[in-house]
Write a structure and sequence with these properties.
The structure holds 2 protein chains of 2 kinds. Chain A is an all-alpha fold. Chain A has one domain: Fumarate reductase/succinate dehydrogenase, transmembrane subunit (3 helical TM bundles of succinate and fumarate reductases, Up-down Bundle), CATH 1.20.1300. Chain A has 4 helices and no strands. Chain A has helices at 13-39, 45-51, 55-83, 87-114. In chain A, helix 1 (13-39) crosses helix 3 (55-83) and helix 3 (55-83) packs antiparallel against helix 4 (87-114). The model of chain A has no long low-confidence stretch (mean pLDDT 93). Chain B is of the alpha+beta class. Helix content of chain B is 31%, strand content 13%. Chain B has helices at residues 32-42, 102-110, 130-134, 153-157, 164-175, 183-190, 204-208, 215-230; strands at residues 2-7, 17-22, 61-64, 67-70, 83-86, 93-95, 98-99. Chain B has a 5-stranded mixed β-sheet, with no helix packed on it. Chain B has a two-stranded antiparallel sheet with strand order 6-7. In chain B, strand 3 and strand 4 (67-70) form a beta hairpin. Classes of the chains: A mainly alpha, B alpha+beta. The interface between A and B is medium-sized, with 16 and 20 residues.
Amino acid sequence: MVNRVVTGAHYGLRDWLVQRVTAVVMAVYTLAVAGYVWMLPSFGYDTWTEMFSGNVIRSFSLLFLLSLFYHAWIGMRDIVMDYVKPAGIRLVIHVLVILALLLYLIWSVQILWGI
Amino acid sequence: MKFRIYRYNPDTDAKPYMQDYDLDLQAGDAMLLDALLLLKQQDDSIGFRKSCREGVCGSDAMSINGRNGLACITPLSSLKQPIEIRPLPGLPIIRDLIVDMTQFFKQYHSIKPYLVNNDPPPETERLQSPQARSELDGLYECILCGCCTTACPSFWWNPDKFVGPAGLLQAYRFIADTRDQDTAARLDNLEDPYRLFRCHTIMNCVDVCPKELNPTEAIGKIKDMMVKRTV
């Protein structure tokens, strides 16, 4: 294969937009949970367990974590695109990052619904 | 006045080096280019580009005390001594302060920097309303000196794939022009993770532009238009 510079993958806008939307989701969740914890009369293992035993908070926490992992994927991919030149190594790193983030996701579900 | 100038002649030097110069000159109203021309009388081997000497041609862009700018409109009185002058970063060096702009102009040409209009040309000219014309303010003034693009880390990492702030500012100049009919194709051409989306809004471009233009804002407007046509 001739080593020519190729561009024109015709994507990028969605990821750029998703990065902004997930940032908002994370900011709102962080502020809401921090505010809620701040208002709790006492804070210990019991209140923490009780807080995370409801399905609403679990769902929103999962939404937060999904946003975090998607956001992290785009960020990691951007770093790799900037600094790793050989396409083969780039692909391997991309796959490893995706697999790691998927594992984190499975793990988060186990933690959230295991409380 | 003390100067430290980047010197490199690939025919004779194994490595680039910094050379110190001393010039008997009061800053006054003089610009850096005036000093460089006087230094060239001392040592005619110093290589740099210059032409209009009034910030219009964009030939004498260089790194001045670590910041890209045009020597001809940078007052000596604004600079801390020793004034360190290097070629624009991120481009191959031909000699001393002269860089090879090929990559820069390749990216510029890739955005088709000309009006595309398939209607038969009118008798006189293609008219615009004053509002439509005002859209081009802050865009058409670019002189393609390369200060912004060579200050952009995203361009340093991917000069062959990222269009760079100057090219993207010009891309928006034609996207915003009501006389142009190629808008969709222009947006398609830029919808790419490398060509447009390497911009991480670092804003070095806005910081250094000698014409005080705002490529980051233009890039944001291109993204806005892409969102508008997608959602």
